[in-house]
Structure formats: C-alpha cells, structure tokens
C-alpha cells in the first residue's frame, strides 16, 4: 500500500532537508528520501556538504590551523611547545565525529518537525491519480505518492578524463578528507575552492603541495586585487601554484601518480606525487532518478531544466540546489529549498541570486558578494572603490593576522553598494554585513554611518566604506 504525502523531497542535502522542514512548518505532510550511509551503514543525511564537503573540510581546516599555529606562531605569544606531534587518526576521527553530530542533528530536526524519513534511493516512477509515484529502494522497498515532488539530489565530483577516482591514489574531495597518512608529495588539479582548501589542509600538516590550474588567471571569479593578494599569501605559505597549464594523460600506479603537463610558457613538465586530488568541478547527480522514464527535462549540461521559480517541465515537480543552474553552494540550495516550500504553499518565495556570498575558507579567508571591479568595467558601470588593509586594524594586530584588506564598490552616482570583496581573517563572517546592506540596497554611506564595536575586524568594512568617499579615519 503506497504511503501518501503532500510533499516528497528526494535528497537530504542542504537544499533537500531544509525544503522538507520548511514544508512541514507550513502544515504539509512531508517525506524526505536520502541514500547516504555512514561507515556503519546507518543513515547519514546532509548530502555532500555534511558528509564529504563543507563540514568535514572545515573541521580539518580548523585542526590543521591549530597544528600550524603550534608549530610556527605560538612562540610569539610566549607559549613554548616541546615535542609537538601529530596523531592523524585522532585528527581525522574528530572530523568524523563532527560529521556524525551534523547527521544526527538533521535526523533530530526531521523528528521534531514530523518529517518522515526514508533511507534509500528515490526514483520518479509515474504520474498517477493524486500526484506522483515515487519508488524508494533501500533496506526495504516502498512506494510513496506525492502531490508535489522536490528534487534535491545534488552533484558529484567530475573525473579527469582517463583517470577515474580510486580514492587511494586519485582522490575526489571524499578521499582527500580521509588519508591515513600525510603524503610527502601531494598534487592538486584545480585551484578552486576544494583544491585550495584541501591543499591547505595537507600543506599545514607537512605535505609538499603543488596546485595545477588550467585557467590563465588565479581565482578568475574573485576580484583581481583580492586574487593577487591571496596568491601572494598562499605562495608565501608554501603552496606551489601554477596557472595556465595543460594537463596531459595522467597515470596512477600502486605507489604514485604521474601528471604530465605543459606549463604556461609552453615547456613540457611532469609532476610525480604520492596522491592526486582532482578538483575540476562537479556535475549534477541525476543517476537513478528516473528522469527518462517520466520525461523530466535536462538541459544540455545535464542539469534539471527549471524556470525562475525552480519548476521543472513536469507538473508539481520542482528542483533545487546543485542539480539545477546557478552556483553550487550549500546556502544557495537552502534558500531555494525554502522558496520552493513557500511557493507550494501559495506564498511568494524569493531568492536574490545577486546577493549570494561566496567564501573560500583558506588562511587568509576569501569572501565576496555582488560584482567585482572587472565585471563592473566590462558592463560599463561607473563606480567608486574604497579599501582598507587589516594591517591598520587593531583587532587584526592583536590576533596576529593582518594579511589582506576589505574593498567596497559603490555606484558612482547613487552610492549603492554593488560589491564587497574581502581577503583576510574571518572574511566568511564579515561578509554577512555586506549581504545585509546589499539586500536593502544600502549605500556605502550607510555602512560608514553605522557604529561598529571597537576593536573588531568589522571596523575594516566601515573604514573601507569611508574610503569610498576618501575619508577613511584610520589609514
């Protein structure tokens, strides 16, 4: 006997579990299906983000940062450390604990909000009376009938052609989070978020890390001034970053991976490493979804085709997150999940794609929202820029972390904030104020007139806003 629900969500990553909870809050009967399992075979909702993405990588970044601080920076605080050692199994074990806490937290939220959870793979089966038939394949077979379906199946790592992931020598983000020993030499293909974050983790723990990037410019999506500052900092730390390379036919053996490539000057090179992290992007995950069976339309790149409201071509079938167009960010998926639940309820769910922040959790951190200088120049927008270095910020000096700056870009005529770009300590937290200002279409003067506590890093944003009008007070 099929079980009936108002809303069935396929996928319990950030987009899926949030959509399910919001729909339940709005009074719908809701089920959520997710196949992810932990090492014990138990349900592990949270998707890539919780299991092998955002959460575990931040846990390892924190641990590796502590290790580097103890090695190189505690002495300047008068803290002497003798016999410093690294227990990698404990470090990775802590990461696993953090992940499980998040898995369990989502299961608790489902229970609290009366969302019925099914551990298995969900597939669209047929359009039937009462909505859509969905088959759940897992420990037991189930058929669900849903008036509305929300697809939130996420994405999968893209493989390098001819070099499949074995998670032993050739690593995706998943394998890169669970190495049993610190490699002597580590290669990373792709200088994006994943490559830089995981490369930073293993460099701090003692690996010699080389990053190869095909694009001619470093971090082309970021503001060029920010990208240059970050590149300088990463190089100083010991990351060897090469841009404009062309990768040849890489080969893995039992003990190493060999990557032939042509460097930016045209010279033939070869990189031999103990492990290779491949982080060249992600592809939408629609395998096993039943898209062809029910006629669900995919676009030319394999994403589920949707309109501006996240509706697919099928009636009452919606899709959110990495499996649809737009940036592959957990917080973007969450906002879409909330918006879709509210649209199902007849409300006006809204996502402002122009104010979705981007963050790279390296050290220094990098964060931005809105347009950068090169985009404004290309669009012919007249703008003013103001920046402020963390070197002149009292809290940054006290922290001993003065790398980087804050930049505010504002319309030349109206002073409306068009973009904010930060490279430096806790940029990930500082960007939230900029997002808020931009959501209200605020001006640089608004930031400049807001009282910021002293001493805080946030004062650097105020000072950068003052600098837009050439009246910075502390620089």
Automatic annotation (TrEMBL):
Which domain of life does this protein belong to?
Answer: Bacteria
Tell where it localizes. Cytoplasm
Predominant location: cytoplasm
Citing just one GO molecular function, the answer is: dihydrolipoyl dehydrogenase (NADH) activity
Instruction: Identify which cofactors the protein needs according to its UniProt entry.
Output: FAD
Q: Where is the FAD/NAD(P)-binding domain?
A: 5-337
Q: Which reaction equations make up its catalytic activity?
A: N(6)-[(R)-dihydrolipoyl]-L-lysyl-[protein] + NAD(+) = N(6)-[(R)-lipoyl]-L-lysyl-[protein] + NADH + H(+)
Entry keyword Oxidoreductase: yes
Q: What class of enzyme is it?
A: oxidoreductase
Which InterPro entries does the record associate with it?
Class-I_Pyr_Nuc-Dis_Oxidored, FAD/NAD-bd_sf, FAD/NAD-binding_dom, FAD/NAD-linked_Rdtase_dimer_sf, Lipoamide_DH, Pyr_nuc-diS_OxRdtase, Pyr_nucl-diS_OxRdtase_dimer
Q: How is the cofactor bound?
A: Binds 1 FAD per subunit.
Record domain Pyridine nucleotide-disulphide oxidoreductase dimerisation: where = 356-465
Q: In its keyword annotation, does this UniProt entry include Signal?
A: no
The EC number of this protein is 1.8.1.4
Keywords annotated in UniProt = Cytoplasm, FAD, Flavoprotein, NAD, Oxidoreductase, Redox-active center
* SUPFAM superfamilies recorded: FAD/NAD(P)-binding domain (SSF51905), FAD/NAD-linked reductases, dimerisation (C-terminal) domain (SSF55424)
Q: Which family does it belong to?
A: Belongs to the class-I pyridine nucleotide-disulfide oxidoreductase family.
Q: What else is known?
A: The active site is a redox-active disulfide bond.
Protein name, UniProt field = Dihydrolipoyl dehydrogenase
Gene source species: Mesopusillimonas faecipullorum
